[in-house]
């Protein structure tokens, strides 16, 4: 594991990453999903696609990477771009799972491999719409503590900043 410091919007992010097959010319950036980390992606893909240099990155707030501010998907993509600039690498392929796929779509990399990716707008079921509306209605009335009833399992242990992201 290695760390790179990225400066973005007057904040410093310490990004954890790992490179496998470092002698290969062509690189492949692999981005994890929400609530996940590079280690899970590495377990799944490190033995595959051996003709590529693999770059596994913990995006801000996940795994061993720091984050103490609310970020948008565009912010994540900008931070990843800065990370790639610092590494002096220009991957031709980015593979993203779920939220990682959503970030990947903003990177303008020639080839995208999207694995169960978030960000593709689909109609929410009525039950989800009711859940969201109920929480938004009760939150200003001081019922923010009932958040635990509404929060998705992959966000239960996240900080306020990460949840708001």
Total strands: 6
Report Rg. Answer: 17 Å
**Mean pLDDT across residues:** 88
Q: Name the CATH class of the largest domain.
A: Alpha Beta
> At CATH's second level, what is the architecture of the largest domain?
3-Layer(aba) Sandwich
Task: Domain count, please report it.
Answer: 2
Structural class: alpha/beta
Per CATH, the superfamily of the largest domain is: Alpha/Beta hydrolase fold, catalytic domain
Described by the principal axes of the CA atoms, the overall outline is globular
Which segments are poorly predicted (pLDDT under 50) over 5 or more consecutive residues? Answer: none
Q: Beta-sheet strand percentage?
A: 15-25%
Topology:
Blueprint: E1 2-8, E2 11-20, E3 27-31, H1 38-45, E4 53-57, H2 73-87, E5 93-97, H3 99-104, E6 111-115, H4 126-138, H5 147-150, H6 160-164
Parallel strand pairs: 3-4, 3-5, 5-6
Antiparallel strand pairs: 1-2, 2-4
């Amino acid at each position: 594991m290695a760390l790179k410091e990225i400066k973005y919007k007057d904040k410093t992010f310490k990004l954890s990453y790992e490179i496998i097959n470092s002698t290969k010319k062509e690189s492949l950036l692999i981005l994890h999903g929400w609530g996940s980390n590079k280690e899970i992606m590495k377990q799944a893909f490190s033995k595959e696609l051996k003709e590529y240099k693999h770059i596994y990155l913990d995006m801000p707030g996940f795994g061993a990477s720091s984050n103490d501010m609310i970020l948008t998907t565009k912010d994540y993509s900008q931070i990843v771009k800065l990370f790639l600039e610092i590494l002096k690498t220009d991957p031709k392929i980015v593979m993203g799972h779920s939220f990682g796929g959503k970030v990947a779509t903003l990177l303008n990399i020639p080839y995208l491999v999207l694995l169960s990716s978030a960000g593709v707008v689909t109609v929410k079921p009525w039950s989800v719409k009711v859940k969201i509306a109920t929480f938004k209605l009760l939150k200003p009335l001081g019922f923010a503590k009932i958040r635990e009833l509404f929060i998705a399992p992959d966000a239960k242990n996240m900080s306020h900043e990460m949840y708001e992201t």
